[in-house]
Amino acid sequence: MIRTAGLVLRRGIRRLEPALGKDAPRDARALMAHVLDVEPGQLTGVLNRIAVPAQISRFEHLVKRRLAHEPVSQIIGHRLFWGRRFRITRDVLDPRPETEVLIDRALRTPAAHILDLGTGSGAILLTLLAEWHMAAGTGVDTSDAALDVAAENARMLGVAPRATLRQGNWFRTVEGIFDLIVSNPPYVTAAEYEELQPEIREWEPTQAITPGGDGLGGYRAILREVWDHLLPGGRLIVEIGPSQATAVCALFVAAGFMQPQVFADLDRRDRVIEAKKPV
After folding, report:
1. What pTM value is reported for the model?
2. What domain range is 23 assigned to?
3. C-alpha distances in angstroms, 90 versus 75, 120, 254, 263?
4. Residues with Cβ within 8 Å of residue 218, at least 6 apart in sequence
5. What is the pLDDT of residues 99-112, one digit of tens each?
6. Closest alpha carbon to 262 in 279, 275, 276
7. Are residues 98 and 56 in the same domain?
8. Best exposed site among 16, 199, 222, 242 by fewest CB in 10 Å?
C-alpha cells in the first residue's frame, strides 16, 4: 500500500492522542520532521510525498518511544534554545523556554568573564558566549557525561576556544573571579519531585532537578562562596521555582546582596533573581 507522509503522520497522531492529548499533533510533527530530515516549519510542504517503508518504520518506532514518555528532545537528540540547536541526551536537563528569561536578563549588561554553575548541556553559558563574541566562560558540573554533551555543543556553536568546562561541585574546582555568575540549579522540592510528569521524573537526571528537602540547597551552596568569585559590581543571576522568590531573596540578602530583583517568565510566574555585588 502506498502511503504519503501526511497519512502516516495522521496515524501517528491518533496513536499518541490517548497519552498526550492536545500535545499529540505537535510531538508527532516533530518526530516526522526528524524522520524526513526537514525543519519543523517545512514539514507541511512535504507531507504529500510518498513515505518509503524505512521512513514509516522509523517513524512508528519513534512514536513508540514517545508513548513510553521519552521526551521528544531526547528522541530527536536536540532542542532549540534562544534560536540555537543544542544536543540533548538523557544525561542533561532539557532546556526550557522559561530559562530564556535568565538569558534575557544576562544580556542586558555585557560581561567578559562568565561562570555557569551546573552547566548541564551548556545552554546558558554557550548561548551567552555565542552572543558575546569577546567573552570567555567556565561551566561547572558534577557529571562527566553532561560535560561531554556541553563540549559537543560548544564545538557545534563555534565557541569551544572560549569555553572552559570543569568537573566539580559548585565552586570546588573553580579558579578566578567573574563579572557574571549564572546558574539554573536543581530547585524542585522532594515532595514536588514525586508529582512530576514521567517525562521528567523517569528520563531526566534527578540531580539536575531536585536537591531534595526544601529545594533550596543549591542556592545556599552558591551563596556561601559566591562573594569570593564575583567582582565588585558583578552580577549573580539564578533561575528559581515559581514559589521560591521570597525564600531565595532572603538568602541573597543574608549573603550580603542588596535589593535582589525578581523577574517573571511569559506566564507571569516568578522565574529569575538577579543581584549585584556592591562596589
Report:
1. 0.93
2. 5-68
3. 10, 11, 36, 29
4. 118, 170, 183, 185, 186, 187, 211
5. 999 999 999 999 99
6. 275
7. no
8. 242
